[in-house]
Design a protein that fits this description.
about 190 residues, alpha+beta, Ribosomal Protein S8, Chain: A, domain 1, 5-stranded mixed sheet, 7 helices
Length: about 190
């Protein structure tokens, strides 16, 4: 073994140690740049500002011609029937044709919240049938069905009557806002 060591020492006699100044400091070499830090901070701020809680995750697909029907507990059968038959005056309409999923998510969230804030009780949401949508038929319709169920102001919805779009649109019944509830309390206290 000593012969091998001597042979190694002779071979390495002209080799000089590497100067430490040429070695990259891995602690600072891979640190994010100022621009990267600013982009990260902007992205985190955008996420914090986005109060839209509607999920883009898994959705249960519906058929293009399927009639959608949803009702929260507490909605009376008569009220639901009148809504289903289109007997309530439509106070607002949202048309989601030619919207991407992200655009539709944003538009629906803003529309429902604005309607609730302004005291709209009955609205129409047009999502289309989506017979030829890719990658799945009725993709937007499926997501609208899911999103409306996630929204607190939505009491009930049902596919509309033929004259309002049939299976390609929904009647949406919204809760009373705080002002309407207060007005109702005052109205019934006077008796």
């Amino acid at each position: 073994m000593s012969d091998e060591f001597e042979l190694f020492r002779r071979e390495m006699s002209g080799v000089k140690p590497i100067d430490n100044a040429d070695i990259a400091d891995t602690r600072t070499e891979f640190a994010p740049t100022l621009a990267q830090l600013q982009r990260r901070q902007a992205a985190e701020q955008q996420l914090a500002d986005d109060i839209n809680y509607l999920s883009m995750e898994f959705v249960e697909f519906v058929q293009p011609d399927q009639v959608l029907d949803y009702r929260r507990d507490g909605v009376q059968h008569g009220v639901h029937k009148r809504m289903r038959l289109g007997q309530y005056e439509l106070e607002a309409t949202l048309d989601l044709h030619n919207h991407s999923l992200r655009q539709a998510r944003k538009a629906l969230f803003e529309f429902i919240n604005l309607c609730h804030k302004r005291g709209v009780r009955s609205a129409l949401v047009v999502h289309g049938m989506g017979k030829f949508s890719k990658p799945h038929p009725a993709l937007l319709k499926s997501y609208v069905n899911k999103w409306l169920q996630q929204m607190e102001p939505v009491m009930a919805f049902h596919s509309s009557q033929r004259q309002h779009g049939g299976a390609g649109s929904l009647y949406v019944l919204l809760k009373k806002n705080a002002e309407q509830k207060q007005h109702n309390r005052e109205l019934h206290q006077r008796r």
